[in-house]
Amino acid sequence: MWLGLEPRGQRSAFWTYGSPVLALLLTVVTAAIIFAALGQDPAEALWTFLIEPLTSASGLPELFVKAAPLILIGVGLSIGFRANVWNIGAEGQFTLGAIFGGWLALRVGEGSGWWIFPAMLLLSILGGMIWAAIPAFLKTRFNANEILTSLMLTYVAQLLLLYLVTGPWKDPEGYGFPQTAMFGDGATAPILIPETRLHLGVLIALAAALLGWLILSKSLLGFQLRVLGSAPRAARFAGFSEAGLIWLSLLLGGGLAGLAGLFEVAGPIGQLTPSISPGYGFTAIIVAFLGRLHPLGVVLAGLVLALSYLGGEAAQIDLGLPNAVTGIFQGILLFYLLGCDVLILYRLRLGRKQPPAKHLREASR
Amino acid sequence: MTDSRKTAEAAGATPLLQLDGILKQFPGCLANDHVDLTLMPGEIHALLGENGAGKSTLVKIIYGVQEPDAGQIRWQGATVQIANPAQARRLGIGMVFQHFSLFESLTVAENIALGISDARQRKGLRSRIAEISRSYGLLLDPDRAVHELSVGERQRVEIVRCLLQEPRLLIMDEPTSVLTPQEVDKLFDTLRRLAAEGCAILYISHKLEEIRALCHEATIMRQGKVVATCDPRHETAEHLAELMIGSRVSAPDRPASSQEEKPVMLEVSHLSLKSDRQFGIDLKDISFTVRGGEILGIGGVAGNGQSELMAALSGETLVNTADAIRINDVAAGRLGPAQRRLLGACFVPEERNGHGAVSAFSLTDNAFLSAFRRRSLTRLGLIEGEKTRRFADDIIRLFDVRGRGVRAEARSLSGGNLQKFIVGREILQRPDLLVVAQPTWGVDAGAAAAIHQALIDLAAQGAGIVIISQDLDEILLLCQRIAVINLGSLSAPRPVGEVTVEQIGLLMGGVHGAPPQEQIKGEQPRVART
């Protein structure tokens, strides 16, 4: 017997959307096997990882709190990825957004004013954009690969943050901990539902997804980005500016990542610390692909990946498993997703390598 | 069956190659439908058919690139399974592909050595190359780098590479599409000499006159099936065409040449442009004008600057001086494609998928691609969906694009239908100037005739047209004037009636050193010195 791949000749619409579902199923099965290998009861461990986090009263709001940065970043990345602009450095742009917005929060301290929070939002977008502008400049001017430059800038951003919170911005009353003072009330994200951590960023993330969908599917700009991604020569033929679209993709992705960074530090965290992100900028890459680079798909995918963070925490507390469970789950998911995507262009064929000639000939007559 | 074959078979000769009921199915298309073919030693056998008739699939099966789903291959009477090209070569089958696989920066000898896996055979390779190229009239200098060679010379490298294996069967895939008329004659001499020595040749082409001049036997394919076998020397070209196409194709009405002076739509003056690609062709001091109502043909062998010229005219490459290109009397050399369209110019690039159209996009989106400015298909930065769909539908209707309507992806269309769509999209923008590269390359005869007629009609309405084509017959059919591009220089345009095919041929190959005939006359060809 022989298992082979046969080209379909065209993209399968079914598997374009079926592939992420199959990948999720395979991931759950694999996770169960890993839990069993770690000596846990697989069913119970899966329950703890995937269901239990949603059963408490704060479960659903927490899911959206975790999903908000993933969706914000994922929408920006999807738009860039559609144009074949591979911004892998959202984590760094996220950090710069937090630093830029945090600067104003620390300046005003306990001061108040309606303008403070909106100004922080704008500053964070600016910060993310500046960080993304570096790879954009290097790519359009020197044809430097944005995958490498944006990724490497992530580590620069993290070291910059570490320097600030251990140096000039360190809280003098913080008992020497590497962190800034807590942000004042005027510099904190408004809460949507009292008694939860559900903040304004969740709403803005959903609005960004809607706007992203509008841009990609209905606007001339989105059309240009899609043409650049599918056929760069056709984009040149049509007279679209490749450099302009690269700049735009990176600035958009960077701005949204910066915004996500601000909502983390002005929301759930409330101050700048050396670890403001559990890898949201990288996880958002998985979110973008799981969501099929479609802004509305990104919302669903963002919720799924958010669950992996909540599940990781639950597994740590209830089962005593290491926090790495989250990363493993995410990694397996990406692995299966890339594997299953083969089915979009190929179908599996089970059979003998050499079909019996006589049999086939009779069948075809 | 022809006389020579009857004698051969009566004498009890075994066919060199016999195909029996070859079947090959691809997703959505039966490429070879029970194909039979018999090839005798020393026979030049034409495999004739339109693009997509299944010729390439059949020879790929013979050369072991593809496996048949059913059917039998007999080689010198014995049933064989040809699993890969290496095995085909061991049997004695050589093939010269349409697209060469040569390393530009290596020399001729190095390229040939790379194809030989057995180290012992590489000994004395240079002298064997020289010997073969001398005895078959394939002039080659083993020490020259491939990027210095003309396309015709590169083809000789591929042929010599095959001949080193001493093949019993040589397969040639559309060998003359890249050659000047003089080079074609020389190639035919070589092939006839090979055949006289007993090597069979399977010659794939859709050029009827060539086949009538060269081949002893022809197998004609249509839609995967063999529709006829005949002796092409005893058939008229018209009859062969009918067999190949399945219906009569009418020639387009000749454009009426008007005497009155129409306005100049395109003026190119002293256009020079350095290519930014390695081994690209620099454009050198190109000048010509095109008036309304006129079709100018630019001929030439592939790779002599056609794509560079197209990019310079369309604005995909900007030129240094704005005045070098004037469209509708506006200096356009520094303007991109978008602004040139607004000046009244439209373009059809050579490559359909990925350049003229986005393969994965629907026809609606592809209609929008280049037409949204001139047809104003946007409002407030948003795409006007309904208006775009109607425009796409107009193209499909008026240009008889057969497919599954406006929602079909571009790649689901056949080459001919997609080309009709692209040409239609540009023509319906009512351009004053249309620049078309290879309008009917890889297009079936019916679609080619429709495209030719559409271009003539557009010119009759007063637009100026530039056709950049490697197909000399096409230029002679459509154009009032012809110029030839060679190594980035353009000859002065001349009225089609005043030049002979031989003169055009010399222009096409002239600048590659001395014309080929004079090289042959020399007692000591260049290779003999090595």
TrEMBL record, chain A:
The keyword Transmembrane helix applies. The keyword Transmembrane helix applies. Keywords: Cell membrane, Membrane, Transmembrane, Transmembrane helix. This is ABC transporter permease. It comes from Dongia soli. It is a multi-pass membrane protein. It is found in: Cell membrane. InterPro entries: ABC_transp_permease. The chain crosses the membrane at residues 21-39, 63-81, 88-106, 112-134, 146-165, 198-216, 237-263, 269-289, 296-312, 324-346.
TrEMBL record, chain B:
Pfam families: ABC_tran. One of its GO terms (molecular function) is ATP binding. CDD domains: ABC_Carb_Monos_I, ABC_Carb_Monos_II. SMART domains: AAA. Keywords: ATP-binding, Nucleotide-binding. This is ABC transporter ATP-binding protein. InterPro entries: AAA+_ATPase (IPR003593), ABC_carbohydrate_import_ATPase (IPR050107), ABC_transporter-like_ATP-bd (IPR003439), ABC_transporter-like_CS (IPR017871), P-loop_NTPase (IPR027417). It comes from Dongia soli. Residues 17-248, 266-512 form the ABC transporter domain. PANTHER family: CARBOHYDRATE TRANSPORT ATP-BINDING PROTEIN MG119-RELATED (PTHR43790), GUANOSINE IMPORT ATP-BINDING PROTEIN NUPO (PTHR43790:SF4).
